[in-house]
Amino acid sequence: xxxxxxxxxxxxxxxxxxxxxxxxxxxxxxxxxxxxxxxxxxxxxxxxxxxxxxxxxxxxxxxxxxxxxxxxxxxxxxxxxxxxxxxxxxxxxxxxxxxxxxxxxxxxxxxxxxxxxxxxxxxxxxxxxxxxxxxxxxxxxxxxxxxxxxxxxxxxxxxxxxxxxxxxxxxxxxxxxxxxxxxxxxxxxxxxxxxxxxxxxxxxxxxxxxxxxxxxxxxxxxxxxxxxxxxxxxxxxxxxxxxxxxxxxxxxxxxxxxxxxxxxxxxxxxxxxxxxxxxxxxxxxxxxxxxxxxxxxxxxxxxxxxxxxxxxxx
Length: 314
Known about the structure:
By secondary structure, this protein is of the alpha+beta class. It is built from seven helices and 21 strands. The protein has a domain at 5-25 and 33-65 and 127-141 and 170-312. 23% of the residues lie in helices and 34% in strands. The longest helix is centred in the last third of the chain and has 17 residues, at 296-312. The N and C termini lie close together (5 Å).
């Protein structure tokens, strides 16, 4: 392919969408700490993948791939185990019989590892890659007090209490897809037709347009407020580290200087990154729209058109 790389960076806004193991009656949001001393909330790429696949299955666009539990008997190399006792190790994985017959969408785009016996495994690396969903604003230690007051009142008891870490932030994440590897699986000799490859990638982009995440009784809206990306001749998550925001007073502004540097970068003898890039912004959300007239949804639709063109350029 002349343009084998899809990459799109998104800005969304939400409360925390992922939690770590808590302690006592405190639920701890996932977070990372920087050298500046600031703390940032994040949602893992595994959680994003879960929400994307669930959205596609719930809307009857995809079907879940079949799963199986693989058991492996392993002899224990201890004096006590020499009495022929064995330990069983199990792993949940995709059903290899289905993978022989066809290549389900989630196994195609997000990869797999199938164990065969004790030593051998068949692997397919993910070709649709997600970054973590990382906050663009520091976390300031906000917490929310939760109680079961309604139930307690109905039984005339004192309510139980818990604390949950919270915050309302802008986040960014990047989706990248190796278009030249979609539908091509040498492990089970699958080579899907071009139209099916296009459908699978465009389905994934469609899910990002209306994405949400159900977490702790909340339905967090993860539809994009800003997108930038396209289909490129070289593979790189061009915009992920250049997309940031800063507040001027109470209004957030996208920091455009770093993005412009990336857009002006030459990627071959003739073309800049900007030549393949589409941008979309939700009106009124940020302090400056930088002359962008398209919504995030319109920009994503144009990127989908570029995917069709990229496959037809083969």
